[in-house]
């Protein structure tokens, strides 16, 4: 049954519940969040600039958002099509493809941002 109308605080709680559920159930999301934490630590240690921080934050947020949407698509597909179906496969594979695209983008951003500071650190 659909819940009654709710306020902003309730919407915020539901959103946090969704994120926590995905964090508990999706290994890939745990990996992405851990990777983002390590990237932020490296960025702080290497003292990268404002625009580099912005790029890293944007790339990390994109990957995590894509993973959350992927989790949502998987749940809906499992709900409406527990049996094997070509359209269910397309929905899940496409959602996974979106995560892959954002992960490749994040890897490229990481290389662009860290290449200079890391080589300079090794030379020093
Ligand atoms: N109902 C279905 N009908 C057809 N193919 C499906 C169906 N469910 C899953 N698949 C196929 O199996 C693959 C794996 O599906 P699964 O639900 O295990 O997700 P997953 O990729 O393992 O996600 P995660 O590990 O993040 O939970 C899908 O990408 C799809 O190709």
TrEMBL record:
This is Diacylglycerol kinase family protein. One of its GO terms (cellular component) is plasma membrane. The keyword Transmembrane helix applies. Coiled coil: none annotated. Pfam families: DAGK_prokar (PF01219). The chain crosses the membrane at residues 97-122. It comes from Paenibacillus lemnae. GO terms for molecular function: ATP binding; kinase activity; metal ion binding. The lineage of its organism: Bacteria, Bacillati, Bacillota, Bacilli, Bacillales. One of its GO terms (biological process) is phospholipid biosynthetic process. Substrate binds at residue 67. A divalent metal cation binds at residues 26, 74. ATP binds at residues 14, 26, 74, 83-85, 92-93. Keywords: ATP-binding, Cell membrane, Kinase, Lipid biosynthesis, Lipid metabolism, Magnesium, Membrane, Metal-binding, Nucleotide-binding, Phospholipid biosynthesis, Phospholipid metabolism, Transferase, Transmembrane, Transmembrane helix. Mn(2+), Zn(2+), Cd(2+) and Co(2+) support activity to lesser extents. The active site is at residue 67. It is found in: Cell membrane. Belongs to the bacterial diacylglycerol kinase family. Its cofactor is Mg(2+). It comes from the Bacteria. It is a multi-pass membrane protein.
């Amino acid at each position: 049954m659909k819940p009654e109308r709710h306020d902003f605080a309730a919407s915020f709680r539901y959103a946090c519940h969704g994120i926590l559920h995905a964090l508990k159930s999706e290994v890939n999301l745990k990996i992405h969040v851990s990777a983002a934490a390590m990237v932020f630590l490296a960025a702080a240690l290497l003292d990268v600039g404002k625009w580099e921080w912005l790029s890293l934050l944007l790339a990390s947020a994109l990957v995590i958002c894509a993973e959350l949407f992927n989790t949502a698509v998987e749940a809906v597909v499992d709900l409406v099509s527990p049996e094997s179906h070509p359209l269910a496969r397309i929905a899940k594979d496409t959602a996974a493809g979106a995560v892959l695209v954002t992960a490749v983008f994040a890897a490229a951003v990481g290389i662009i941002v860290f290449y200079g500071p890391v080589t300079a650190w090794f030379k020093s």
